[in-house]
Amino acid sequence: MNRIELVTRRTFLGGMFSAGAFVLGARLLPAKALASTKAGRAGDAGLAAWNPGVYLGIETDGSVIIVTHRSEMGTGIRSVLPSVLADELDADWARVKIEQAIGDKKYGNQNTDGSCSIRDFYDAMREAGASARLMLERAAAEQWGVPAAECKAQNHQIVHAGSGRKLGYGELAALAAKQALPKKEELKFKSPAEYRYIGKDMPTVDCDDICAGRGTFGIDAKMPGMVYATIARSPVFGGKLKSYDDQETRKVRGVRKVVALPGFKPPHGFQALGGVAVIADNTWAAMKGREKLKLDWEASDNASYDSAAYKQSLLETVRKPQKVARNVGDVDAEFARGGKIHEAEYYVPHLAHAPMEPPAAVAEFKDGKALIYTATQNPQAVQDTVAAALGIDKNNVECHVTLLGGGFGRKSKPDYVAEAALLSRELGKPVKVTWSREDDIRFDYYHAVAAMYMKAAVDEKGRPTAWLQRSAFPSIGSTFAGPSMLYGQGFELGMGWTNVPFDIPNHRAENGPAKPHVRIGWLRSVSNIYHAFAVHSFVDELAHLANRDSVEYLLDVLGQPRKIDLGQPGPMAEKFPLDTGRLRRVIELAAERSGWAKKKPAKGRALGIAAHWSFYSYVAAVVEVEVDASGKIRIPGVDIAADVGKVINPDRVKSQLEGASVFGASIALMSEITAAGGSIQQSNFHDYPVARINEAPVETRVHLIESDAPPAGVGEPGVPPMPPAICNAVFAATGKRIRDLPLRKHKI
After folding, report:
1. Could you report the per-residue pLDDT of 42-71, keeping only the tens digit for each?
2. What is the DSSP letter of 293?
3. How confident is the model at residue 29 (pLDDT cuts 50, 70, 90)?
4. End-to-end CA distance of the chain
5. Cβ(342)–Cβ(455) under 8 Å?
6. Cross-strand partners of 294
7. How far is CA 253 from CA 248, 283, 426, 431, 575, in A?
């Protein structure tokens, strides 16, 4: 149960399940769970119609095999999704074996991204488990010659109520396989009181192997006869190779060959960047050989990119009227009335994903087919990307998913897999491509830099009567449409910008153009990072200007509990409305548990708060900071209150929110990517720092609200409130307002 079993498509049914096994092709859910890779961001965009299925098998020895189609990168999803199915099946968890799915469209959307794994597949897994349970009960009834209503599943066996007779799942496997798949309306789901696993703390199935060093990550994957490769890429995005001299490289012991890779054709999407690959007997030799290359690059238009100048251009953009994204009331008329006006500008720099495990992939191209082993968040994107690179049908690309040493969105973009596949075709043997940390930092799909302008008119109590906000950021859409896409897409603006939940009679949100100069991609919580920073810093500024308590003011501006119509009709809007009552509750709980009312600001020490709705979850963070005489910031504690709907595994939810606390602290305190002459200036953790143990919050206390609402996102919603809460706390402690991240740039 604790091993990742990598099975091929050819042997999936024949090898995973033995003869006589009960294999269930269960209905899943409609197009809601599907998102086109080419649409950009996983979520509600680019939905396609398809009727997917997932396999559940019961062996004649009683083993229950559950195929999990999502990728494990520390969230626990490889364990949590199967536990939902196992609960409805009433299976003994000790007898459950989990198999990792290869990339295949039959599983629905396999992109482990967008905090949607549980949200999209909770009902599907319940249905699969309930279907199999009913089929087993009917099989037992048929064997005993009794009504099916008298048979009930209990801990991996079917029990006849009248006689007490019992049959194990393995004994019924062959007969259950002959039962008709029940209609959906025939299914009976467990009540919460009957749950054995849902809502309970459960360890992940991979925990022991990971802790003991037995887990197989992308960087561990091997194929017989493979060679190793590293690639020198243009330091400027879009630069083309003019010439190279590999004379000294070939002298490095272990180096076998040097291969030039062609550049990409716009739009770049997930294509390999191109460059010069050094092939060797091991990764170290390949990297040492790369150091000896003499390269001459032809600069692209992006050679003029300077992040400092770009920042100023974005700020100039948001100081002027821009494209209206949302409009309520008449802000211009309200501003024209005069009165007290407050304005502020905010800025968030480029960010890198920097997962602990840099990108790595092994590929073999043979007989017109590609075999891949890699750490990927999206094996279907691997199929599409590799197929396009090699000019083959995607059904001839077989992608095996290993454990991921972190992802944060980077490993849903399989450019590194395309590199391995192209090199394998060139060399006629398996090739392993490993990115160094420097490669990872310098050639990332960066989180967009963003500038925001905020303006509000306030009444005598400091409440906003008019609220204007403008943003400008290079869009993720440019990755798929090219640099001509200058404005934010709807899903980007819908992440904390066009859905500000405050009760304001006059509100306008605008978005300005921003040309991309590097690859732009989604990073944990995406546009919510910069939008939440601006919105929740600004509302805190208004609270202090009104000389009001930040929590009391925030609740006042939020208004009475209500459900907000965002003008986006459809099943998702009906299932997950923006409910300000739930947002109020997490604010109140975070304030209560942090002791907000009792802890008054003192010199150098104070609390800050922010609350945000993202991925259909509600999260409030109260952060305590200490600032010493030298300006060094310490975070003694964080209280996070969250309403994520129904909680499947409380331990995993808490773990994700604790991780978000550290991730958000890194963004606020220290992380920044800059460019000069088109080249990224950072290369490793010495100049792109992330919070270490002595810099991360000392303690993060997570408080979950019990809810019967549908399960929503967990992996990302904890990030957005952290940067504004930290900066709000710094202001309360020092009187210095930070509007430009990261904090380490400022003298406090």
Report:
1. 333 322 222 223 678 899 999 999 999 999
2. -
3. very low
4. 52
5. yes
6. 245
7. 11, 12, 22, 18, 61
C-alpha dihedral sign at 643, 645, 647, 653? negative
Rounded CA-CA distance 738/748 in Å is 9
Please calculate the CA angle 576-577-579 and round it to the nearest 5 degrees. 120
The Cβ of residue 127 has, within 10 Å, a number of other Cβ atoms equal to: 23
Average pLDDT in the 171-183 region?
92
Burial 485-511 (b: 16+ CB within 10 A, else e): bbbbbebbbbbbbbbbbbebebbbbbb
Encoded tokens for 715: 């992996």
Exposed, middle or buried: residue 10 (CB in 10 Å: 0-12, 13-18, 19+)?
Answer: exposed
Is the Cβ–Cβ distance between 350 and 672 less than 8 Å?
yes
Instruction: In whole angstroms, give the CA distance from residue 707 to residue 331.
Output: 37
What secondary structure letter does DSSP report for 388? H
- Looking at the DSSP bridge assignments, the partners of residue 640 are 621, 702
Closest CA to 489 of 460, 444, 448, 455: 448
pLDDT for position 17: 64
How far is the C-alpha of 697 from the C-alpha of 657, rounded, in Å?
12
The CA-based diameter of the chain, rounded to the nearest angstrom, is 84
Parallel, antiparallel, or unpaired: how do β-strands 506-512 and 464-472 relate? Answer: parallel
Alpha-carbon gap, residue 535 to 550, rounded angstroms: 14
Q: Which two tokens stand for residue 687?
A: 């100049």
Number of Cβ atoms within 10 Å of the Cβ of 467: 27
Return the pLDDT at 12: 35
The residue assigned the tokens 């944990």 is 524
Closest by CA position to 154, among listed 82, 94, 89, 201: 89
Q: What is the pLDDT of residues 495-535, one digit of tens each?
A: 999 999 999 999 999 999 999 999 999 999 999 999 999 99
Nearest one of 220, 319, 237 to 274, comparing CA atoms:
237
Q: What CA–CA distance (Å, rounded) separates 177 from 23?
A: 7
Question: Where on the phi/psi map is residue 87: left (φ > 0), alpha (ψ -120 to 50), or beta?
Answer: alpha
- Match 């968890």 to its residue by tokens: 93
Encoding tokens for residue 114? 């967008």
Q: β-strands 227-232, 431-434: how paired?
A: parallel
Q: How many helices (H) and strands (E) does the chain have?
A: 19, 29
For helices 117-144 and 77-89, angle between their N-to-C axes, nearest 10 degrees: 30
Residue 543: what pLDDT? 98
pLDDT digits 0-9 by tens, 318-329: 999 999 999 999
Q: Which of 407, 661, 346 is nearest to 530 (CA)?
A: 346
Mean pLDDT over the full length of the chain: 92
In this structure, are strands 431-434 and 617-627 parallel, antiparallel, or unpaired? unpaired
Q: Which residue has the tokens 């488990």?
A: 129
Comparing CA positions, the residue from 491, 566, 495 lying closest to residue 527 is: 495
Q: Cβ–Cβ contacts within 10 Å for residue 14, how many?
A: 11
DSSP E strands: which ranges in 530-686? Answer: 563-564, 578-579, 605-614, 617-627, 633-643, 675-676, 679-680
Q: In terms of DSSP bridges, do strands 294-298 and 275-280 run parallel, antiparallel, or are they unpaired?
A: unpaired
List C-alpha distances in Å: 535 to 25, 55, 416, 714, 728.
47, 45, 36, 21, 12
Write the pLDDT tens digit of every residue in 64-77: 999 999 999 999 99
Distance CA 118, CA 125 (A): 9
Is residue 597's pLDDT more than 90? Answer: yes
Closest CA to 498 of 463, 471, 538, 529: 471
Task: Identify residue 721 by its one-letter amino acid code.
Answer: P
